[in-house]
């Protein structure tokens, strides 16, 4: 396997205290682990009880079932955290949704946080926010910019895809990084230039084969004949040798178009020609939840079957999660932007190795 680009940081002697908002299954926590920066998650908050169950099984009992719209500034202050990470609901802003923005009830939790943040007596020094591509054009995003800049945060933002981290996946997402106080020469373009050099050129990107399971039983993952003949032309079909696959959404395995790629397991050279001749001979299957988790940067030590979380449920939970590899690089720049981390180097690779 080819090495991924290097990212590095100075070593801290004191733990960064972290508040994970919209913590999900722990993607932000795993991203922090990948940076090698000492940290302590003081509390993780999510309204999804199944996500909390997975988080707590893998990362300790930090995740709490709390409605963020009920949290006030005093409670946020009580955590005394240096860093807030958050991945608010993306449904109000997705291109395949209704794009109701601030009118969508699912945006209210984040809007509430933006109302409470200026009231916090000791606000965090660092904030990292993740959302779907297109969020940047929303009323919510404009409100976010106004609040953070009004509080003297240096705020930068931009879109990134895992392909820019050598991961063969086109899950493009918007990221916002906020740091208290002024900072010279800190911008998103610099971050891309130093830690996301490949862009969309396809240079050095790993193939999907690097992320596939070899010992699993795949019979239940093969696409049924009825689906193949009714919706087959809507499928995004990839091979193990491919250097890209589509974004896996929470509807993977249920929806056909726009929910994620399917894998060709036959050895036919031309997918298009064979599809017209005998599409069933391509032996198309869904990616397993483990394979998707690997593509998204979760280690193989990450568990869910042991706590009786189904594959279907994991598709939904992974679809709402983040790419660990991308966020780990961003966190390194957020916490050590001025030095670029020249004093110590670490390589971020697919973490199941």
UniProtKB/TrEMBL annotation:
Signal peptide feature range: none
BP terms from Gene Ontology: tRNA C5-cytosine methylation
EC number: 2.1.1.204
EC supergroup of this enzyme: transferase
GO molecular function, one term: tRNA (cytidine-5-)-methyltransferase activity
Active site: 90
PROSITE patterns in UniProt: C5_MTASE_2, SAM_MT_C5
InterPro entries: C5-MTase, C5_MeTfrase, C5_meth_CS, SAM-dependent_MTases_sf
UniProt keyword terms in alphabetical order: Methyltransferase, S-adenosyl-L-methionine, Transferase
Cellular component GO terms held in the UniProt record: nucleus
Family of this protein: Belongs to the class I-like SAM-binding methyltransferase superfamily. C5-methyltransferase family.
Name of the protein in question: tRNA (cytosine(38)-C(5))-methyltransferase
